[in-house]
């Protein structure tokens, strides 16, 4: 099994009736599914088991014997199918001689350098990516120089929900749901003149009960 490094990243899709494997690119994860290789013993056992469910007796015992035979031969059959799948699968990947990884030629291989793009990045792709990131950084800098909240009253008390109906507030002075003012209304205490919140029952300054 000279291709052992190729088999580092795979999924075994085999079942009782045959063998199949999915190999993945070490860089991006794109995959290739190997052709399904039927297990002759597994197929024969399945047919005998189906027939045995109708007829029983000798056929049923043959199906059980086939199951034991299949279990005995599973290792050898798997190894042979695996080796065949590896030889077939390697045709769909490129091996980087610098890092040893197997990558897909469509997305992760630098043909000009004969190395994977992790070891030899594609300069055109890198330039395009750098330009895009620089453009985003410049856009941030440019937007920071423009007043974005000129209409925002930073001294006013802002609320996230209407104090009357608890509806979400999108801005403005009045609730879009119930029409009442969003600012907390305050009245003067009849005894000390301290401002008292609308819903307060007592003056926070002198303790006088709020009338009304």
Automatic annotation (TrEMBL):
It holds the Pfam family DZR. Residues 162-207 form the DZANK-type domain. This is Zinc ribbon domain-containing protein. It comes from Pyxidicoccus parkwayensis. The lineage of its organism: Bacteria, Pseudomonadati, Myxococcota, Myxococcia, Myxococcales.
